[in-house]
C-alpha cells in the first residue's frame, strides 16, 4: 500500500506492469549514474557547509537543503527507498527507517532490514537477502498469499522530537516492483494519562496504543505506543498535534504521522475519519482490553480497566483428537447501541485471534464482557463451524469443541467461449475466485487465489450451501489475460467428506472480446445508416445478429424497436421496448433521462394506437406517458402521447385537455388538430390513420 501518485499509475496500467522487468533494468543503470551525481552534490554541500562554519554559521543553510528535495527515483525491484523531509519540505538526515515483516492474523512482527537517511534525507533498504530467504524462487506471486498466511511489510520511521511514521506495504509489490515511500516527519506532540483499576489503583505494565483503524502489526514501544509505569502513567510522545475543533483544510483533523508526502499533496499526518478522533487501545494480561477515543493532542486520557472474561476451548477433528496450529478467532457481536460521544469508553467491535497448541487447546485471557462468535480454520479451506458464546467479566468460560470438517475438493476448468474447449493456459498464472460458504443465516465469502494444477484449479469448500464465481486470471506480470463471462455456480455439499466436484467457467480472450466489441459497434452503425435510408428490413437483419452476440446491447435493441415500429411490426416492437425498461443491466446503461423518456413515450404511443386490439393497453399507456412527462420539461410530443393514451381508455375529457396543451405549444401541426377532432367525436387514434399523415405525431 503506497500513497504515492506513481504507485497509482502502477496499479491501474496493466501494460506498464507488463513492461516492468526491462524498465527496471533501465532504471537500475540510471540510478547508478544518479548516485554518482548525488555524491558530487554531497561533496559540494560539504564544502558549502565548511565555508558556512568558517563564517560562524551552524550547519547547512535551509535554502540549500530545500534545493536538494527532488522527487524520489522510480521503484526498483527488491528495494524500498524514498526521502524523509520535515514539515517545511527540508530533508531530515539520520532518521532510522525499519522494515518489519508481520503476520496478518496475529499481528506479530520481526525486523527485516533497516537504513538511516543520508544528508539529503534519502534512504535505501535492500530486500535481496530477505527475499532469498523468504522466497527462494526470487519473486512473489501477484497475490502473495496462495499458500500460508499473507506476509505483510510495515515501514516505520522515528526521530527524536518528530512524529513517527508507519505504513503497510505489499510484499509482492516491494519484491516484484520495488517501493518508493516518501516520508514527512512533523514536530511531535504528546498524549498522557493514567491507567487504573475500577477502584483507582494504578495499573503498571499496561500497553497503550494510538491507532486509526487496524492496530496491527504490533510494533515496539515508542512508536504510537507506550507502557505504563508503577504509578500507572503513560505518555505517547510521537503523535501530531490536532484537535477536533480545529479541522484541517480537508475538513478533518490530522491525527498522527502515517501518510507519505507526495509532490502533489503535502499532508503531515493520517487523516482520521468523519467522526474526527483517533482510537486508544489499552491492553494488560490481567484485564479486559479497553478501547477509548481521543479527540485532541496534546491531551490527557485516563483509563479505568475492567476485569477480563476468560475463554478456553479445543479445536478437534471428527475423530476427537486435537487439531494443532488452527487459527481461532473470536469476534464480538456488534452492539445495536450507538457509540458514546466524547472522550471515553467506546463500544467497539472486538476481534482477537490465537493459535491452538499441540493438543488443540486455545485460551483468550483478556476479553471484554459481551456476546461473541468463535470460529476456527486450518489453512485456507478447512473451516470449523462457528459457535455463539457469552463472556462475562471476571469469569472463565469453557466453550464447546470446534469440530473440523473435511473440505470438499472443487475442480474448476476454464473453457474457451468460442471453441468450447479447455483454455490453453500457461503454468505460471493465478486465478482468483470468490467462494461463499455456510448456511443462509451465517455465510462467509472469501477471495481465493489458486495456482493451476494440471488442467484445472483446485478449491475446497466445507459442507453446506456454497456459491462460486470467477473474478480474473492473471499472468506473472500481473496483467489480466481473459474476460470472464458473468456466471455463478451454486449448490450444496451434504456429506462430509464429499466426493470431488467438477465445474467450469467460460472465458474469452481480451483480443477476442475487443474484436467482438468492434464488430458489434460496426453492425449497429451500419444498421443506423440503413434506418436513415429507410431500409428497415436490412437494419433489423443486422441488429438481429448483433443482439444474438450481445443480448444486453441497449443501442442495438433500441434501434431494432424503432425499426420494427416503422415496419408496423408492433408486437415485436413492444417486446423490445418492454425489455429495455425491465432489464436492470440495460437500465443502468440507459443512464440519462432522455433515453428513458423517449422509450416510455414510444412504447406508450404503440400501446394506445396499435391497430391490433390484442396489443393495446390504454391503462399501461397512460402510466408510461405520464412517467415520461414527469421526467421531462414541457413537450408537445409527450402531451400528445398522454392525450391519445387517455383516449384509448375512453377518458376523452382528459384526452382533450392534454391535446389542447400540446396544440398550445405547437399550433401548426396538422396531426394534433386531427387528433383533437377525433377525441371531440369520442373516437381514439389508430396507427393506420397516422401512417397516412407524413407529419403524424408519436414515435
TrEMBL record:
SMART domains: TPR. Residues 1-24, 680-699 are annotated as: Disordered. Residues 690-699 have a biased composition (Acidic residues). TPR repeats lie at residues 636-669. It comes from the Bacteria. Keywords: Repeat, TPR repeat. Residues 1-13 have a biased composition (Basic and acidic residues). Gene3D superfamilies: Carboxypeptidase-like, regulatory domain, Tetratricopeptide repeat domain. SUPFAM superfamilies: Carboxypeptidase regulatory domain-like, Starch-binding domain-like, TPR-like. GO terms for cellular component: cell outer membrane. GO terms for molecular function: carbohydrate binding. PANTHER family: TETRATRICOPEPTIDE REPEAT PROTEIN 6 (PTHR44858), UDP-N-ACETYLGLUCOSAMINE--PEPTIDE N-ACETYLGLUCOSAMINYLTRANSFERASE SPINDLY-RELATED (PTHR44858:SF1). This is Tetratricopeptide repeat protein.
